[in-house]
User: What shape does this take?
Amino acid sequence: MAPEKQHEEHAHGEEHLRETHLMLDPKPRGEMNAMVMEAMHYTTWKFWVVAAVLAVIVAVGLFYSWGVMIAEGLGLAGINRPSYWGIFIVNTVFWIGISHAGTFISAILRVFKAEFRRPFTRAAELMTTFGLMQAGFSIFMHMGRVWLAYWLFPYPNQRLIWPNLHSPLTWDVLAITTYLLASTMYLFLPLIPDLAMARDRTEGGWRKVAYRILALGFRGTEGEWKHLRLAMNIFAFAIIPVMFSVHTIVSWDFAAATRPGWSSTIFGPYFVVGALHSGMGAVVIVLAIVRGTMKNMKYFIRAEHFEAIGKLMLIISMTWAYFFFNDYIVQWYGGDKWTNILLHFHEAGPLGFLWFLMLAVNIVIPWAVLWNKKWRSNPWIVGIVGLLINVGMWIERYIIVPISLTINRTPFTWSLYKPGIEIPLGIGTLALFILLYMLASKFIPLVPAWEVQEGQLAHRFTKYGRETVVTVSELE
Amino acid sequence: MANLDKESAVSVNLTNPEEGKWGMVIDRDLCTGCQACVAACAMENNLAFVGEELSGNGRSMHWIRIERFWEGEYPEVKATPFEPTMCQQCGYAPCEPVCPAYATVHSQDQQLNLQVYNRCVGTRYCGNNCPYQVRSFNWFDYERPEPLNNQFNPDVTVRRRGVMEKCTFCIQRIKRAEDTARAEGREVADGEFAPACAQACPANAIVFGRVDKPETVVSQLAKQARGVKRLEELGTFPHVTYLKAG
Amino acid sequence: MAETLSLLAVFSDLEPAADAMDRLRALGVPEDHLNVISGIPLNEAMLGRKQQHSNVPKIALGGAVLGFLVGSALVFGTPYNYPVPIQVGRQPIIPGPPSFIVLFELTMLIMLLSTFLGVFLDSYFPSYRPKQYVADVSDGKIAIFFACPEDQKDKFSQAMTALGAEKVEVAEAKPL
Assistant: This one.
């Protein structure tokens, strides 16, 4: 091969890498800031129509229905003996699961220095905070006397009663509170430099006031960066065990109980992986929509990101299948009368089709689609798989909670759960999640521009002999 | 292996180290399924009347119910004997530790399983965790039309919406008997009082008394070969013994 | 000694900024009169600076200890707060394994709250007083603030411009 031709090919290879990898395609920070700001400011009438519809759904489905339920009583919901827990708990577990995605991406991937995380850590962290809010709403809806919810928190009180530390629900209160506060702080810390950026690029108006207040007077001095990076590092490491503890404790709500099907020692990791399964699915849905609808996002979120998350989704789906089978075979082998009846009820009961649908969308479809690099690089294909996984994971919790509760050791009480007011309330939490996310995407920079720039600075083309390769230096 | 003789190995786990204090024996061979206990319990304990529709949906508030099953395929069906079911007042109650608000706790004095209505926030975890499914939840506030409001038992609180409730072994009657006995400087005599269900039972199928005293009628009955505890394998140590021949 | 001025020089890239720092040191500006602000975090060594001192890890550790103590108070203190300890399900009054959960969650909660607070304390957040700042910094530029004698302003400016400074101006505190 002629040397010029070879050189040309290398140049072409570099060009291709640039096109596909955000980290190799640097733009001046000023330009990136302008793109992020434009994405934040730019709205069409469609955005506001969707927001208005969601606001109506939230007002009616969530707040009005909830108000009526508080005033009338929990009987408006379909929960009934023996299914004392229903869609409220399903939704709580589901939303906590969604919230795991943010921490997984912004903490675990940060700790392991996975560079592809950079443009969407914030998009994922936002899901954590808003998802946990919906989980909080769902669990409060579930309470018979929600106006006394503060009794569950440990604080000195005139009643001289402290929470019962034996109860998994008390552990839940502590763990979810810890996780909500920690993930909100972890969302805020890397946001400070971006808020300062927004402050510098906003002229007057309420936004200027808000950014000024929220940026806390950040300038970017050496000290400020040092404290910020140290704190982010501490958070990244510490929030991982907190995240694991949250969903493990959620699983103990079930596993600690004396119920057939619930009393399983593998529920902890099974739930954590299930949470990541639905969480990653939700991240790709959000990223596909953000990329498709927000301005300039095609620069920041590229096929490579869907490809990378798609790979993670495939691995998590396999892990989930492993835990599912592990849980199933031990219960099946045990031969306990009630467990056998329950397993039969799962598969061949009136809602048996849900069980098979769950396996199809949680295992079969991800495996069939995500092995293919070309398919998993397509945002819409991965987004749809993510959506299906979320349907499947919701069904999984539905099978674990109300369907499993139908069968107990007192056959006289067996009766099938039929949801009531849970349905509008559940739709209301979904609408509130989307609405909050939409509004937040118009108020805070959704892409951490400084982290992207930091990553781009760390990536270089290096020549090894005749070959040009990409090298990453550890700036952090 | 010297220490692991059969006797001590068995005695470690399979018997209740403490029989409890108050207990009940229900003779399924005597029960006629007349529901008198159900009615008496509702009157004594100010149970809410939920109406026909809610009752049909399985939301009646009864603290005691008569269970009965059909066995076999039609037309070869056989009815099982009646089985009055109420809170078994477990010694190791699964409902107790799971309540985050200490609303269901173990009474040291009576060795009973208490439900503290005004501490309950309605998580219904206890209801899930009860293997006997004998807890009932106040799904609504239930009105009591005139003049039925005049028949409330003043010794028992009424419960509002959003709290769990269950059989208490008529703890108000236990307390009254204990107080009377203490005032008179004596122990409560066997058979001096009975919970509403036992009192109302025309067949004497329900017998109540001290299970920790071997000479009481209830202890004598419970010791029979006919006696079983429900779901004994769970290790909940219920204080109710069912008698059934064959 | 003549009056001193506070000047700022803005650089686009790291290399010229590092050269400028060396030049300023050579011109006799003491290290503690040099200040750098940047749009991305820079390691201190990149500009030949001393390691910044941070209290954040210590505050975090203090928070962890405090959290453990609060957790211990909950676990070991509250169950004996009643005239008769409350018995549930024949479990011990102080439950064994669940205590670890409570201790873990409270340790983590208060540790993370203190870490967050530590950033505020160490960085003097929030502070809305007027400060020396150039908005170019959030566009990824590096600004060096330094003190120089008033009569040598031109000399310093030229030195900075020669090394590639985009602009050199008198630093003024202004509202951010």
